[in-house]
Structures are given as C-alpha cells and as structure tokens.
UniProtKB/TrEMBL annotation:
It catalyses: GTP + H2O = GDP + phosphate + H(+). This is Tubulin/FtsZ family protein. Pfam families: Tubulin_C (PF03953). Belongs to the tubulin family. Residues 1-139 form the Tubulin/FtsZ 2-layer sandwich domain. InterPro entries: Alpha_tubulin, Tub_FtsZ_C, Tubulin, Tubulin/FtsZ-like_C, Tubulin/FtsZ_2-layer-sand-dom, Tubulin_C. The keyword Ligase does not apply. One of its GO terms (biological process) is microtubule-based process. GO terms for molecular function: GTP binding; hydrolase activity; structural constituent of cytoskeleton. One of its GO terms (cellular component) is microtubule. The keyword GTP-binding applies.
Length: 184
C-alpha cells in the first residue's frame, strides 16, 4: 500500500477520510449505500485535514471498507467515480484504487457520539490538495517567526523546508509527464 500511495519520498502525507460520520442522536433508520459512503470520501466534510480535494489531483486512493459490503457494489461505486470525472487524477499515474474489506461491522464507543452503522469506509489518499494545509501552516509559521523572535537560522531553515514541501506537492499536480525523461 505504501508504494502505491507515495510516488516520491517527500510526497508522503496521506489525506484520511472517514464516512459516514453520523451522530448517535441524528442517526436515521435508512442505511447509506456503498456508493453514497464512497462518494462521501471525496467530500471535504468527511476529511480529517481541512482542504478541498476538488482543488487538487489525486495520485492514489486506498479504500478500506468495513461491515455489510460486497465487492460488486464497491467496484460499481469506483467505476462511477472514474466515469464522472469530477475527481481528477494526475496524468502520470494510473487511476488505481486499492480496496480492502473487513466484513465485521464498524465499531463505536458505547454510549458515544457516533452512530452505530452497518457499513463505513476509511480512505487513505495522496492528493495535491493537501498543499492547502501546508500553506496555512506556512502562514502561521511566518506569524510565529515574527512574534517569537527566535534564532533566525533555525526558523529560516525550517521555513525553507516547508516551502519546498509545498512546492513539491504543487509540481506533482502539474500535468507534465515526459516518458523520455530518464531522471527519477
């Protein structure tokens, strides 16, 4: 799974998504379909990091289903995602999805806030959209640098590394694959 999600050593920060997230008090009797929970993984509200995946391109997706699911429904949901083309993938990487299934129902904390459901999915993906999170972190870093008055060398080196990481994610999303390029 690691080799599929991480195309380059520095591009190794997965975006974690979980669906559905439904509160115990708002739980309804209608169960969401495999297609609905799969589509929810590509919505900003299901993510564990605040960024908009519609502003970036995916390099890889790993969907880990739990509960009452069948492979046919999963394949159908993925097929719809690929054909709709709402979700963009980088052109230099095959639009592959890795899938795992655990037929045990999702577990919840007893008397907790999350509803007990028949099925759920956790997605690990590598997307260029996560650079939005790095940009926010860089901005906060710059404010801290000005406010804290710490050693300039330490801050400068760390800031340069963060800027390079942000640039790496930006470059990965650019559609420029040259099959004759021997450099890796």
């Amino acid at each position: 799974m690691l080799t599929n999600l991480v195309p380059y050593p520095r591009i190794h920060f997965p975006l974690v998504t979980y669906a559905p997230i439904i509160s115990a008090e708002k739980a309804y009797h209608e169960q969401l379909t495999v297609s609905e929970i799969t589509n929810a993984c590509f919505e900003p509200g299901s993510q564990m990091v605040k960024c908009d995946p519609r502003n970036g391109k995916y390099m890889a997706c790993c969907l880990l289903f739990r509960g009452d699911v069948v492979p046919k429904d999963i394949n159908s949901a993925i097929s719809v995602i690929k054909t709709k083309r709402n979700i963009q993938f980088v052109d230099w990487c095959p639009t592959g999805f890795k899938v795992g299934i655990n037929y045990q129902p999702p577990t919840v904390v007893p008397n907790g806030d999350i509803a007990k459901l028949q099925r759920a999915v956790c997605m690990l993906s590598n997307t260029t959209a996560i650079q939005e999170a790095w940009a926010r972190l860089d901005h906060k870093f710059d404010l801290m640098y000005v406010g804290e008055g710490m050693e300039e060398g330490e801050f400068s080196e760390a800031r340069e590394d963060m800027a390079a990481l942000e640039k790496d994610y930006e470059e990965v999303g650019v559609d420029s694959f040259d099959p004759n390029d021997d450099e890796y």
